[in-house]
């Protein structure tokens, strides 16, 4: 193995790990994360409804697929509600703090 060949390897590029983000950038990233998560929950709910309708119309005979989609969307919705409750609880706790 040629040791000189190792010196030709480019440095690994990491996406802005050392760069400090402004509060506006962090807020924008967090809001886009929440928006994406809510869209995923909505998509799971829509898929579950579509599968339920297809099962009712006897287009799908596999009840396991319908049940799994329903449980997945239910769990995602419950998780979203719990995260929302924790965020509201944290906000209320911060507002109660004295400066």
UniProtKB/TrEMBL annotation:
Its main location: other. It is found in: Bacterial flagellum basal body. Keywords: Bacterial flagellum, Cell projection, Cilium, Flagellum. GO terms for molecular function: cytoskeletal motor activity; structural molecule activity. One of its GO terms (cellular component) is bacterial-type flagellum basal body. Pfam families: FliE. GO terms for biological process: bacterial-type flagellum-dependent cell motility. InterPro entries: FliE. Belongs to the FliE family. HAMAP family: FliE. This is Flagellar hook-basal body complex protein FliE. It comes from Brevibacillus reuszeri.
